[in-house]
Specification:
By secondary structure, this protein is an alpha/beta fold. The chain has a single domain, classed as Rossmann fold, CATH 3.40.50. It has nine helices and nine strands. Strands 3, 4, 5, 8 and 9 form a five-stranded parallel β-sheet that branches. Strands 1-2 form a two-stranded antiparallel sheet. A two-stranded antiparallel ribbon has the order 6-7. α9 links the parallel β8 and β9. α4 packs across α5 and α5 crosses α7. It starts with a helix and ends with a strand. The N terminus is likely disordered. The structure holds zinc ion (ZN) (2 copies). The site of one zinc ion (ZN) has 7 residues, from α2.
Length: 244
């Protein structure tokens, strides 16, 4: 019941954002979501776009920023459960502030901007597209409190251009986990162990998991394990930004 209400609430918010975008485009010049300068097309000006902290080069297995394109020493020693990790930006100014606004202040236009940036980067990446994108789920209680899941908003914005399939209900967070800010890698792994249940719909599919930020990758790794247990044939871990 609570989830249904939250879903309806999300639909209403999407509807309002679409209406707002249509009206704003008609009546007023578009403003850059990062610096408020007038711009055209995407609400992101050329100057801000040019200063984005792209995560390149990075390890192809864990997206850790580094100085070469090869697999990092950590992944060679302990390969993660996902086949690849992709986070096109680094968690630095201004992406950090915009992600925070999306996560805690319902700044849905940021999801639109990041979704478009991710869609561009996905084409530049040149790897086969997944069969389905599964946003990292929030625990129902946190979803109810926040009213939306920022990863679902991002997944929808990213998927729109290529018509990719998004299945926000295929993964559930059964156990409420503590907020991971300030935890080190071992604590984060322990905190999310056994937290997820994944729908059997993933069987034989290539899955991309999507989170807003990838920090140690513990959450994405645990969700990847749950997908593989449910029969997914390949799992990639995606995020907008990688924390160093
Ligand atoms: Zn700007
Ligand atoms: Zn790595």
């Amino acid at each position: 019941m609570v989830l249904e209400q939250t879903g309806t609430c999300q639909l209403k918010m999407h509807f309002m954002v679409d209406i707002w975008r249509a009206v704003a485009t008609e009546l007023a010049p578009l403003r850059c979501q990062f610096c408020d300068a007038p711009c055209a097309g995407l609400p992101l000006c050329a100057a801000c776009r040019a200063t984005l902290p792209w995560n390149d080069p990075a390890c192809p297995r864990c997206a850790q920023p580094q100085h070469h394109d090869g697999v990092c020493a950590d992944c060679l020693a302990h390969p993660p459960p996902f086949a690849a990790a992709w986070a096109p930006l680094r968690l630095a100014t201004p992406t950090q502030q915009q992600i925070h606004a999306l996560k805690y202040r319902a700044a849905f236009l940021h999801a639109h901007v990041f979704g478009e940036l991710l869609a561009d980067a996905l084409h530049a990446r040149g790897r086969p597209l997944p069969d389905v994108i599964i946003p990292v789920p929030l625990h129902p209680l946190r979803l109810w409190r926040r009213g939306y899941n920022q990863s679902v908003e991002l997944a929808r914005a990213l998927a729109r251009r290529d018509g990719l399939r998004v299945e926000p209900r295929w993964a559930e967070r059964r156990r409420a986990t503590r907020d991971q800010i300030g935890m080190h890698a071992v604590e984060r792994r322990r905190n999310v162990r056994g937290a997820f249940v994944v729908d059997a719909g993933v069987r034989d599919l290539r899955v991309a998991l999507l989170d807003d930020v990838m920090t140690t990758g513990a959450t994405l790794a645990e969700l990847a394990r749950a997908c593989l247990r449910a029969g997914a044939c390949q799992v990639e871990a995606w995020a907008i930004a990688r924390a160093p």
